Task: structure prediction
Amino acid sequence: MNKLDKESVLGISALLVHAANIDEIYSDHEKDLVRNFIKSYLKDEDASSMLKRAEEIEKNSNQLLSFTNIIKKNPTDIKKDIIEHLWKVIISDNSVDQYEANLMRRICGLIYFSDKECAEIKLKLINSK
Result:
């Protein structure tokens, strides 16, 4: 799998934070999932300080497009991994509300990722819980 650069990981982490915040409950477990994403791409980075920066970016941005443009440029395996991380965050509280489902549909549309593949990833994660 290709690696993402630091700025890309930061932007995608902000998108993960956004996904975590959409139901207005941002749990420690969700923060851990975002940190795990950061560590999966940037082994040597301080994941907690990156998470803080991602939270700041998310708080000051109502622009999803800037984050999805980062993802769109990547190969399918990276997109798939990012979608998987997004679903992990969303289903971590064992429910998917309409806003979360809508967010995933919008993101998949913006990064040219198939709804079918997105649904398969979601089901795989739910079934592995």
Summary: The CA atoms of residues 31 and 51 lie 8 Å apart. The helical segments are 6-21, 28-41, 47-59, 64-72, 76-91, 98-110, 115-127. The domain at 6-127 is CATH 1.10.3680 (TerB-like).
